[in-house]
């Protein structure tokens, strides 16, 4: 009886498994899936691949019309007029056939010419009527910096509903002239402008109305004036300004997390940004001490800093303690392009280091052409003693045996009691590489503590 019951139970389980397997083998077609699932799957594929699925089956012929992301890139075709016409025709055909209510993103990359203006207008009109969330038009042509015939963005094609739907805008080689009393983009999260013509007032008014913006990027967009946005942008977390002719930058962004700037040394006012985490500053030309003083005034609360000056000049002053401090800085990365005439001033870098009382990680990348074993400059004994009590890791790259480099490294080692790791990379593939490495090893062997890990490569 018991055995029968056991066997019966097993048979019953096998029967149930077969039923489940049969269900799994049910003939479920792609077009049987819910429309939102189809859109999710199609959105993972490039538009070209999605369109190609139409030849696989007559039932799949129009599936691509449900693609939520439309991306067109003219870089994939020849620049011949005939090929460009085909590209334009393809875009027009796709937009004409697509279900506008299904489209969430429209991205177009094509070099602008005035003959394209009407076509671009119609594409933006499609975007407005489709109430898309992501609008990206990269219209930068070859040699665009030498041209002024920007595409004039058609604000008149947008209504309040389409404006409120936009969450991301990326525009390149465009002229922005918003209408009088333009209300901005209330739900915009991301704004990326490259090579854009816009006045200071129009840009400031537009940004002041983007109360939910989280990322702002300006690239080669010349105001030739200051950019000052006093309206609090509480959601702004990422600010990027690259190669823009702007005389002053000022934002009220209390939750700013990252800031990237590349250009000339200009006043930067971010006094309300107490949560700054990562900052990257790349200057075309500057005096080292002036640049450091400017950073102390404008960005005192950052935690991580990458600092690079392409054409760097160093003054012999600045070895005394600075009354102002980077009181939150934990990681400092310096790219130092030092001309051989300033080889005697390398030790002046200490003035920057002394302004970072809580620094834990230091990386210095030297580029000192023509300064191999330069035996010039002061010694570390001329400096007042200063302890870097939190410094744990130091990485030196581009070491060439110059006296200033040796004195700087020894000063750090002797004044950082918590230092765990020191790594020094000499310039490779040079005749003096081996000799420079020997100098560093011999000097450091005498100075570092037994617990410090030293690696000279």
Automatic annotation (TrEMBL):
SUPFAM superfamilies: F-box domain (SSF81383), RNI-like (SSF52047)
UniProt-listed Pfam families: F-box, LRR_At1g61320_AtMIF1
SMART domains, A to Z: FBOX (SM00256)
Matching InterPro entries: At1g61320/At1g61330-like, F-box-like_dom_sf, F-box_AtFBL13-like, F-box_dom, LRR_At1g61320_AtMIF1, LRR_dom_sf
CDD domains, alphabetized: F-box_AtFBL13-like
F-box domain ranges (all copies): 33-74
Protein name (Swiss-Prot/TrEMBL): F-box domain-containing protein
Organism: Digitaria exilis
Lineage: Eukaryota, Viridiplantae, Streptophyta, Embryophyta, Tracheophyta
């Amino acid at each position: 009886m018991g055995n029968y019951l056991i066997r019966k139970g097993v048979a019953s389980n096998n029967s149930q498994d077969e039923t489940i397997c049969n269900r799994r083998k049910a003939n479920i077609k792609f077009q049987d899936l819910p429309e939102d699932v189809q859109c999710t799957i199609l959105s993972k594929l490039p538009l070209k691949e999605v369109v190609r699925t139409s030849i696989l089956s007559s039932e799949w012929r129009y599936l691509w019309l449900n693609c939520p992301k439309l991306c067109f890139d003219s870089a994939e075709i020849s620049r011949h007029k005939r090929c460009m016409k085909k590209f334009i025709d393809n875009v027009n055909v796709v937009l004409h056939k697509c279900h506008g209510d299904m489209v969430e993103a429209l991205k177009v990359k094509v070099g602008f010419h005035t003959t394209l203006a009407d076509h671009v207008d119609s594409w933006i009109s499609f975007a407005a009527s489709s109430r898309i969330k992501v609008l990206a038009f990269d219209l930068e042509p070859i040699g665009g910096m030498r041209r002024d015939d920007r595409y004039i963005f058609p604000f008149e094609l947008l209504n309040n509903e389409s404006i409120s739907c936009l969450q991301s805008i990326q525009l390149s080689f465009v002229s922005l002239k918003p209408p009088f009393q333009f209300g901005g983009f209330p739900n915009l999260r991301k704004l990326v402008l490259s090579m854009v013509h816009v006045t200071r007032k129009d840009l400031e008014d537009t940004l002041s109305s983007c109360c939910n913006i989280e990322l702002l990027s300006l690239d080669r967009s010349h105001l030739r004036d200051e950019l000052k946005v006093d309206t609090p942008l509480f959601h702004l977390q990422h600010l990027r300004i690259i190669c823009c002719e702007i005389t002053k930058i000022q934002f009220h962004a209390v939750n700013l997390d990252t800031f990237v700037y590349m250009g000339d040394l200009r006043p930067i006012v971010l006094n309300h940004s107490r949560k700054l985490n990562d900052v990257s500053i790349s200057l075309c030309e500057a005096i080292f001490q002036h640049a450091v003083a400017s950073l102390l005034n404008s960005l005192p609360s950052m935690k991580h800093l990458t600092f690079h000056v392409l054409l760097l000049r160093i003054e012999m002053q600045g070895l005394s303690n600075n009354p102002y401090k980077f009181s939150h800085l934990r990681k400092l990365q310096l790219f130092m392009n030092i001309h051989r005439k300033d080889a005697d001033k390398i030790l002046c870098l200490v003035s920057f280091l002394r302004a970072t009382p809580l620094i834990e990680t230091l990386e210095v990348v030297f580029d000192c052409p023509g300064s191999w074993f330069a035996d010039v400059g002061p010694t570390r004994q001329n400096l007042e003693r200063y302890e870097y009590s939190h410094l744990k890791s130091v990485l030196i790259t581009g070491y060439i045996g110059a006296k200033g480099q040796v004195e700087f490294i020894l000063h750090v080692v002797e004044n950082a009691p918590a230092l765990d790791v020191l790594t020094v990379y000499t310039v490779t593939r040079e005749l003096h590489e081996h000799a420079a490495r020997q100098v560093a090893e011999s000097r450091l062997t005498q100075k570092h503590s037994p617990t410090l890990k030293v690696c000279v490569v």
